[in-house]
């Protein structure tokens, strides 16, 4: 299947990627529950060159997935990924069926972006932060998960009596400590936790690989890592559409 549109449905929003010339050409972010907005956005897309529009859809949010697929099936042909076995990648972990498909689609895309025999790591900064290893043979080897910046900020606000809701505004290039007020102290702490977690994990993964890692960063909070120096481990490559590219590649591998 060659998709016209790939869709990644998350916990707080969805992303559509229009496919052209063998890649994801344009990306838009849309609400999870507003069919009127979906209709308006679809009206801006060019008509498919031949036949019905082809959608490839994946999600970590089953209720939102089912709602969207019911709508999408009225607007073309739809391929839905709900199981890791449909993806063109080996999953070498204890419980493959419990791995979030977003992690696996990122791995599929990363594997396609590196030379044969090169290991890769994906760093997805979203509601949660995931750091995942794809080994030199192209197999998904698992990784780590920790709270994302917004989740950290909400936890501090909701589970304490006086701390305000304060999310990072700037990226690591503007990191300064100590902070001089409570709101900035929270932002500084979250940025330190994010960058420190990524550095620690990449160092541990690099120690297991005999050749340098390729590291691909994606997700709504990926910009927060701008300016983070990891030259001793690897260079970071920002790929905003990494998950969508993985969905496109997986769809094209379907029989």
From TrEMBL:
<dbReference type="GO" id="GO:0046872">
    <property type="term" value="F:metal ion binding"/>
</dbReference>
<dbReference type="GO" id="GO:0004594">
    <property type="term" value="F:pantothenate kinase activity"/>
</dbReference>
<feature type="binding site">
    <location>
        <begin position="100"/>
        <end position="103"/>
    </location>
    <ligand>
        <name>substrate</name>
    </ligand>
</feature>
<feature type="binding site">
    <location>
        <position position="124"/>
    </location>
    <ligand>
        <name>K(+)</name>
    </ligand>
</feature>
<keyword id="KW-0173">Coenzyme A biosynthesis</keyword>
<keyword id="KW-0418">Kinase</keyword>
<feature type="binding site">
    <location>
        <position position="182"/>
    </location>
    <ligand>
        <name>substrate</name>
    </ligand>
</feature>
<dbReference type="GO" id="GO:0015937">
    <property type="term" value="P:coenzyme A biosynthetic process"/>
</dbReference>
<keyword id="KW-0630">Potassium</keyword>
<keyword id="KW-0479">Metal-binding</keyword>
<feature type="active site" description="Proton acceptor">
    <location>
        <position position="102"/>
    </location>
</feature>
<dbReference type="Pfam" id="PF03309">
    <property type="entry name" value="Pan_kinase"/>
</dbReference>
<dbReference type="GO" id="GO:0005524">
    <property type="term" value="F:ATP binding"/>
</dbReference>
<keyword id="KW-0963">Cytoplasm</keyword>
<comment type="pathway">
    <text>Cofactor biosynthesis; coenzyme A biosynthesis; CoA from (R)-pantothenate: step 1/5.</text>
</comment>
<comment type="subunit">
    <text>Homodimer.</text>
</comment>
<feature type="binding site">
    <location>
        <begin position="8"/>
        <end position="15"/>
    </location>
    <ligand>
        <name>ATP</name>
    </ligand>
</feature>
<dbReference type="GO" id="GO:0005737">
    <property type="term" value="C:cytoplasm"/>
</dbReference>
<comment type="function">
    <text>Catalyzes the phosphorylation of pantothenate (Pan), the first step in CoA biosynthesis.</text>
</comment>
<dbReference type="InterPro" id="IPR004619">
    <property type="entry name" value="Type_III_PanK"/>
</dbReference>
<keyword id="KW-0547">Nucleotide-binding</keyword>
<feature type="binding site">
    <location>
        <position position="127"/>
    </location>
    <ligand>
        <name>ATP</name>
    </ligand>
</feature>
<comment type="similarity">
    <text>Belongs to the type III pantothenate kinase family.</text>
</comment>
<protein>
    <recommendedName>
        <fullName>Type III pantothenate kinase</fullName>
        <ecNumber>2.7.1.33</ecNumber>
    </recommendedName>
</protein>
<dbReference type="InterPro" id="IPR043129">
    <property type="entry name" value="ATPase_NBD"/>
</dbReference>
<keyword id="KW-0067">ATP-binding</keyword>
<keyword id="KW-0808">Transferase</keyword>
């Amino acid at each position: 299947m060659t998709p016209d549109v790939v869709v990644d449905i998350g916990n707080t929003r969805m992303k559509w990627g229009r496919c052209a010339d063998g890649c994801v050409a344009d990306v838009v972010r849309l609400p999870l529950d507003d069919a009127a907005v979906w209709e308006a956005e679809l009206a801006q897309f060019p008509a498919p060159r031949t036949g019905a529009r082809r959608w490839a859809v994946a999600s970590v949010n089953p209720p939102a997935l089912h709602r969207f697929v019911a709508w999408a099936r009225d607007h073309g042909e739809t391929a839905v990924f709900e199981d890791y076995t449909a993806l063109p990648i080996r999953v070498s972990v204890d419980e493959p069926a419990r791995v979030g498909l977003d992690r696996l689609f990122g791995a599929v895309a990363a594997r396609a972006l590196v030379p044969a025999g090169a290991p890769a790591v994906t760093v997805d900064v979203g509601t949660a932060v995931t750091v995942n290893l794809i080994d030199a043979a192209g197999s998904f080897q698992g990784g780590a998960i920790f709270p994302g910046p917004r989740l950290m900020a909400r936890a501090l606000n909701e589970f304490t009596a006086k701390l305000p809701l304060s999310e990072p505004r700037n990226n690591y290039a503007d990191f300064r400590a100590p902070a001089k007020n409570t709101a900035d102290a929270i932002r500084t702490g979250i940025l330190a936790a994010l960058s420190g977690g990524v550095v620690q994990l990449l160092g541990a993964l690099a120690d297991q690989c005999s050749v340098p890692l390729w590291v691909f960063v994606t997700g709504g909070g990926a910009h927060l890592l701008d300016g983070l120096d990891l030259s001793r481990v690897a260079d970071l490559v920002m790929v905003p559409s990494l998950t969508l590219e993985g969905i496109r590649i997986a769809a094209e591998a379907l029989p």
